[in-house]
Design brief:
InterPro entries: Homeodomain-like_sf, HTH-type_TetR-like_transc_reg, HTH_TetR, KstR2_TetR_C, Tet_transcr_reg_TetR-rel_C_sf. Keywords: DNA-binding, Transcription, Transcription regulation. This is TetR/AcrR family transcriptional regulator. Pfam families: TetR_C_24 (PF17932), TetR_N (PF00440). The protein has about 230 residues and is mainly α. It folds into two domains: about 1-50, Arc Repressor Mutant, subunit A, CATH 1.10.10.60; about 65-220, Orthogonal Bundle (Tetracycline Repressor, domain 2), CATH 1.10.357.10. It has ten helices and no strands. It has helices at about 10-25, 30-40, 45-50, 55-75, 80-100, 100-110, 120-145, 150-165, 180-195, 205-215.
């Protein structure tokens, strides 16, 4: 491996490949032996970088949340309308099910393991920061009169639940694209949260939202194939 097996490139390959194995098999089944074999390195090399699987998972989740947070801040620099900000956040979450799929599935299916080892405090901070981005969008829309709902936090949890659950059923070979799923979800949510008289604005129809999502491409995180992956698809 370039840079030596004890170098940062190998460390990153371990993180990325482990995310992929956890996404495919679950944390319990994704063993250090399986990880080492898939990368063509020794178990000792893995343990040199990470003494436990929990530490690999925590680092993978830290990197994943950092990608999501940075991506949304880039979007918010260029999108000011609350409705479009909300739609964009939903799109970013759902898009990650396609373009950052191993990290997304690993993160969502193994969230209950967050407290077990690694930089838990920083991970919690990133999760809270991502949640605060969503609640900030909702609160600004509420204060401006664009949105009409009572509970900001509960509304945020509803949206997160809808978007995060996508991993359980979305497949890359399905007829519906990520853009179509995101536009339909966002249009439905906007119809529910927008103030009276604004719910049917054609500017926030699924068709218009799909066009809006395409315009975000320059500000989105690039596709993130795991560095250690041997997949060809």
């Amino acid at each position: 491996m370039p840079g030596g097996r004890n170098g940062p490139e190998t460390r990153q390959q371990i993180i990325d490949r482990f995310s992929e194995l956890v996404a495919d098999h679950g944390f319990e089944e994704a063993s250090v032996s399986m990880l080492a074999s898939s990368l063509g390195i020794s178990k000792g090399t893995v343990v040199h970088h990470f003494p436990s699987k929990n530490l690999i998972l925590c680092e993978a989740h830290l990197q994943y949340m950092d990608r999501r947070v940075r991506e949304m801040y880039r979007i918010l620099e260029h999108v000011q309308v609350p409705e479009h900000q909300l739609a964009a956040m939903m799109y970013c979450i759902i898009r990650a099910h396609r373009d950052d799929r191993p990290g997304t599935i690993s993160f969502l299916r193994e969230q209950s393991r967050f407290p077990f080892g690694g930089d838990v405090a920083n991970l919690r901070t990133l999760r809270n920061e991502f949640t605060s981005i969503m609640t900030g969008i909702l609160r600004r829309g509420q204060l401006s009169g664009a949105f009409a709902f009572e509970q900001v936090t509960l509304t945020a949890m509803q949206i997160f639940g809808q978007c995060n659950y996508v991993w359980t059923w979305f497949r890359l070979d399905e007829a519906a694209t990520v853009e179509e799923v995101s536009a339909e979800f966002a249009a439905n949510i906007l119809r529910g949260v927008r103030a009276t008289g604004k719910a049917d604005d054609p500017e926030f129809s699924p068709k218009k939202l799909r066009e809006f999502f395409v315009s975000l491409t320059p500000h989105l995180a690039p596709h993130h194939p795991p560095a250690g992956s041997r997949r060809t698809a």
